[in-house]
Design brief:
3 helices, about 30% strand, alpha+beta, 15 strands, 6-stranded antiparallel β-sheet, single chain
C-alpha cells in the first residue's frame, strides 16, 4: 500500500509541474508578424535607395545639360548676328564667331573717300585696304579668316558673290586691314563697323547626341555632321531643337533651344533663348 501511494504522489507531482513552449498557432502568428515587418522594412530600404539613385541621376543630368546649354549660349553670344542660320533640316544652328571688331575711319587711304568703304551706293573704286581704328584680335574662338561690313542677311555672307564678306589677309595690322583682292561692298555699316570672323561653327543634334563642329568650310551649304565632332551630351531628343528670330538694324536676333535630356527614367526639358546683340 505504501508503495502505491508513493508512486501516485510522484505522478501527481509530475503533472503539477509548469509546462514551457509555444503552440503551433503562436508560432504561425510570430512568423506572420515577422514576415510583415520584413516586407515593410525591405520596401522602405528599397524605396530609399531608389530615391537616392533618382536624385543622383537627376543631379548628374542637370549638370550635363546645363554645361551644354551654357557653352552654346556663351559661344553664340559672340557670333556675328547675320551669320547665324539653321541648316541640316533644322538639326543644326550654324554661325561665325567674331574674333575682333572695330570702326573703320577711311574706306580707301589712297583716295578721298573718308569714313566710308566703296559700296553699291557711292560707286567708289574697289580697294584692298581699309584704314581702321586700333583694335585687338582675340584668338579665343579661332584665327581671323574673313572680314564683313554691313551684312544684313546670311546670303550676303555665305552665298557667292559674298557681297558683304571678304577674305582676311594676315598681313593686316591693327590699323590697316588688307584684303586679297580689291572689294566693293554691298553697303556701309550704319555705325561704320567691321568684324573679323573665323570659319563657321555649329551645334547639331545628330541622332540622340548633341555635337559641336568647328572649321566648317564657308562654301558648304550644310554642316558635314559626323566629321570630328565634339560631343556635348548624349540621350538628347527634340522635335524642333533650334528656332531663329531674325533681327533688324535696331532689334536683336533671338535663338531658341528646345531640348530634352534623358538619363534612365529621368528626363529634363529645357527651353532657352539667346539674344545676339545686333550692331551692323
Amino acid at each position: 500500500m505504501a508503495t502505491f501511494r508513493q508512486h501516485h504522489k510522484e505522478i501527481l507531482y509530475t503533472k503539477d509541474q509548469p509546462q514551457y513552449g509555444f503552440t503551433l498557432i503562436e508560432l504561425i502568428a510570430v512568423i506572420v508578424v515577422l514576415g510583415i515587418l520584413a516586407t515593410i522594412g525591405t520596401g522602405f530600404v528599397v524605396k530609399t535607395t531608389e530615391a537616392y539613385q533618382r536624385t543622383q541621376t537627376r543631379a548628374l543630368l542637370v549638370n550635363t545639360s546645363r554645361q551644354a546649354l551654357e557653352r552654346m549660349t556663351r559661344q553664340l553670344r559672340v557670333a556675328l548676328p547675320y551669320s547665324v542660320r539653321i541648316t541640316n533640316s533644322g538639326q543644326c544652328i550654324e554661325f561665325m564667331p567674331i574674333a575682333a571688331g572695330g570702326n573703320y575711319i577711311d574706306g580707301n587711304p589712297a583716295t578721298s573717300f573718308p569714313d566710308v568703304v566703296p559700296d553699291s551706293s557711292n560707286n567708289a573704286p574697289a580697294t584692298s585696304q581699309i584704314a581702321v581704328a586700333p583694335h585687338v584680335i582675340s584668338t579665343t574662338f579661332g584665327t581671323p579668316l574673313h572680314i564683313t561690313i554691313g551684312a544684313l542677311s546670311t546670303d550676303e555672307i555665305y552665298a557667292s558673290p559674298y557681297v558683304s564678306r571678304a577674305d582676311y589677309n594676315p598681313t593686316s595690322t591693327n590699323m590697316l586691314l588688307q584684303l586679297y583682292t580689291p572689294k566693293r561692298w554691298q553697303r556701309n555699316s550704319i555705325n561704320k563697323r567691321f568684324y573679323l570672323l573665323t570659319d563657321p561653327q555649329a551645334f547639331c543634334l545628330v541622332g540622340s547626341e548633341l555635337h559641336f563642329y568647328s572649321g566648317i568650310p564657308i562654301t558648304s551649304g550644310t554642316v558635314p555632321v559626323g566629321v570630328n565632332p565634339s560631343i556635348l551630351a548624349r540621350n538628347v531628343t527634340a522635335t524642333a531643337p533650334f528656332a531663329l528670330q531674325m533681327g533688324s538694324e535696331n532689334r536683336n536676333i533671338r535663338i531658341n533651344f528646345s531640348l530634352n535630356f534623358t538619363s534612365g527614367d529621368e528626363t529634363i526639358g529645357y527651353t532657352q533663348g539667346v539674344l545676339i546683340r545686333n550692331v551692323p
